[in-house]
Amino acid sequence: MLVAREYRSVMEARQALGTALDRTSTPSLFDRIDWFESLHEHCFAETDARIIQALEGEHQAWLFLVSPKAGRLSALANWYSFDWTPIFLGPSDLTVRRRLIEAVAQNLLKDSAQINLYPVTEASGLLLDAFRRAGWFGVRRPMGGRHILHLNGRTFEEYWAQRPGRLRTLITRKSRASRFTLSITDRLTDALWRDYVAVHDRSWKQPEANLPFLHALAARESAAGTLRLGFARLEEQPIATQLWTVENGTALIHKLVHDQAFDGASPGSLLSHAMFADVIRNDHVATIDYGTGDNNYKTDWMEQRETLHQLDFFNPRRASIWLPAARAAISALVG
C-alpha cells in the first residue's frame, strides 16, 4: 500500500525519521536532516516548510520543500546546496522510486500551482518523468554548473603537474615573494570565527546574510572532525580564509573569501594550493567538489563540469500558470 504524508516543520520530519538521516546512516552532507534543519532555521526562517514522505512497504521517498507563497513550492536549498534530490530509504529499486515520486506529485496537485526545484543533477530525469506522469507540465533547464575533480589515485604532485601552466607559474612566483603564513585546522574556536568574519568584512563580496548558517555548519563539522578551515595571515592579520569539509573520501569547498586589498599578492590562490595539497596528501580524498557556480578560476583547479538543472512544474488545472509555463518552455528551448 502506498501512503503519502506531509510534515510542516523540519522538527516534525526529524521525529518521524528517527536516526534515518543522521551522519552515521547518510553519506552525503546535503541529504542529512541536520543540513535541512540548519538551512531552514538560518536561511528560510520566514518561509513555511513542506516536507513530503511517500511510503510503500520498506521503501520511502522524502522531498524537503518550502512554500514561499500560497500555491508555490521550491526546493529547500540555496547557493550552499551543491545538489538537491529526493531522499530514498530502503532497497534500491528504480521502478518503486518512480512510483513514490509520482505519488508525491499527485498529492501536490491538490493545492499547488507551481514547483521549482534547483539545483538538481542526477535525479532530474526521474523527477521530470514522475511529475509528468502525475499530471504536471514539466520543464528542465540547464542553470549553471558544478565543478568536480576526481583524483583517480593520483598524488598531489601528479595532480599539480597537470594543472595549467599559468596557474603553476602564478603559485611559484607568488610563493617566492609571499610573506603570508598559511594554516589549516579541523577545529573551530571563537577566535578563529572572529578572524573568518573579519576577512569576510574586508572581501569583495557582498555582506553575507547567512553567516549564522556558515557558523553552524563550521561548528557542526568541527565537532565531527570533518572541518578544514584554512587561513592566510600577514603577521597576525587574517588575509584569506577557506571553509572546506572532508568526509567519506570527498572534500567539499563551501566558501572562499579574501581581503581585496591584497589581491596583487594572490593570498587566496596560495591558500587554495595549500588546501588542495593537504586534503590530497593527508586526507587521501578521491574527489574534490567546488560546488555550484561557473567561476572561471575553478576550471584551472578542476577537471569535470556537471550540469545543474532547474525543474519547473506547472499545474495545468490552474489557468493562471499557463503563461509562465509557456515562457519556461520557450526559455528551455532557446537556453
UniProtKB/TrEMBL annotation:
InterPro entries for the chain: Acyl_CoA_acyltransferase (IPR016181), BioF2-like_GNAT_dom (IPR038740)
Pfam families in the cross-refs: Acetyltransf_6 (PF13480)
Domain BioF2-like acetyltransferase: 177-298
Protein name: CelD-like protein
Source organism: Sphingobium chungbukense
